[in-house]
Specification:
Elements: E1 15-16, E2 18-20, E3 25-32, E4 39-48, E5 59-60, E6 75-79, E7 86-87, H1 90-97, E8 102-105, E9 110-113, H2 118-125, E10 128-136, E11 139-148, E12 154-156, E13 165-168, E14 170-171, E15 179-180, H3 182-185, E16 188-193, E17 200-205, E18 217-219, E19 253-254, E20 265-267, E21 270-272, H4 284-298, H5 301-309, E22 313-314
Parallel strand pairs: 6-15, 7-14, 12-19
Antiparallel strand pairs: 1-22, 2-18, 3-17, 4-5, 4-6, 4-10, 7-15, 8-9, 9-13, 10-11, 12-13, 16-17, 20-21
Length: 322
């Protein structure tokens, strides 16, 4: 599944028993278990994809472990759609923030955007991305998943702040558990096969909004251990959306990030939140992750039969994250 995004508008694509191949871009990472069992994050970098860079360098790497010897060059992170944030070590968030016009709020555990800075407008509208490099048993060479900063320009609201406050969702209050949540899943494809003989999940880059409107649904058979990428080019899927020519302002997405409530807000007069698209997939990733996690744990005949019955059916909309 791919939860999609609000700005720019890309509808979610949650499926049971299959997947939309158009939402799989680039190489696929395969791992045993499930997203909540974790994956190895090797590094984080800031990469500029186009010709216009808001900084002196088109690539700044080493942001995961710099200044923190305890990380040791790699970090186990969980993928969980019930979290809105990028929950990482404080040293990592600080390393990223050192290259951004943000200020740290100790009480919130978040960095707030300095909207008066010219760099703010440049970073969230140009081809700047926050890139996550992963490795697993299936790939010794790191595979990157890139999140445009356009998707990392969010807004806090009550009860967390009295007035709407733009923030960068790198969260530091994880208490030793590190999670890539919905902010990350706007640009990632996640799939799984919970058959007991397979027990595998997949992670890949998801495309930007400039993709074909039609779906290309592929069945996941009970013994399938991998999925195949589609024909979309990731960079091309963002053409005309981000600014590689001139700097322009971008209105941040207003979002309630209290983890016990829906992350929603108002953007351009339209109620929205991370991951909502035309298919209204705002929290389907949360219930979807729980559903497939529960199926993997139980591995009962009934759950296997239910999966067959639901094969190639869109996920049912739900408004809660369980």
């Amino acid at each position: 599944m791919h939860i999609g995004s609000v700005q720019p508008d890309l509808s979610g694509s949650p499926w049971f028993g299959g997947y939309d191949q158009n939402r799989v871009v680039g190489e696929v990472i395969s791992m045993n278990g499930g997203p909540r069992d974790g994956i190895t994050l090797q590094d984080i970098s800031i990469d500029v994809i186009g010709s216009k860079s808001p900084s002196k360098s088109n690539s700044i790497d080493g942001l995961l472990a710099k200044g923190n010897s305890s990380i040791g060059g790699r970090l186990k992170v969980l993928i969980d759609g019930c979290s809105p944030y990028l929950t990482l070590p404080k040293s990592t968030c600080d390393n990223i923030a050192a290259n951004l016009p943000v200020n740290y709020d100790k009480n919130l555990g978040l960095h707030l955007w300095d909207t008066k800075s010219d760099k703010y407008k440049e970073i969230i509208t140009t081809t700047s991305t926050l890139s996550f490099s992963f490795i697993s048993n299936s790939n010794t060479d790191p595979i990157k998943i890139r999140i445009p900063f356009m998707h990392l320009n969010l807004t806090l609201s009550k009860p967390l702040t009295d007035t709407p406050t733009p923030y960068f969702p790198c969260h530091t209050h994880g208490n030793g558990q590190y999670v890539l949540g919905r902010a990350f899943l706007q640009d990632a494809f996640v799939g799984a096969n919970w058959h007991p003989d397979v027990d595998t999940w997949w992670l890949a880059q998801a495309p930007g909004p400039n993709i074909q409107l039609t779906t290309n649904i592929v069945s996941i058979m009970k013994k399938d251990k991998t999925v195949s990428k589609g024909g979309n080019d990731w960079k091309a899927s963002w053409n005309g959306v981000w600014d590689d020519e001139e700097t322009a302002a971008n209105t941040p997405t207003k979002a309630n990030t209290n983890e016990e409530v829906d992350e929603t807000g108002m953007l351009g007069g339209t109620k929205a939140g991370i991951g909502i698209g035309a298919a209204a997939a705002v929290l389907e990733i949360g219930i979807g992750m729980f559903f497939i996690w529960r199926r993997r744990r139980s591995q009962t005949t009934d759950s296997q039969q239910r999966a067959r019955n639901l094969r190639l059916q869109p996920a049912i909309k739900d408004q809660s994250c369980v």
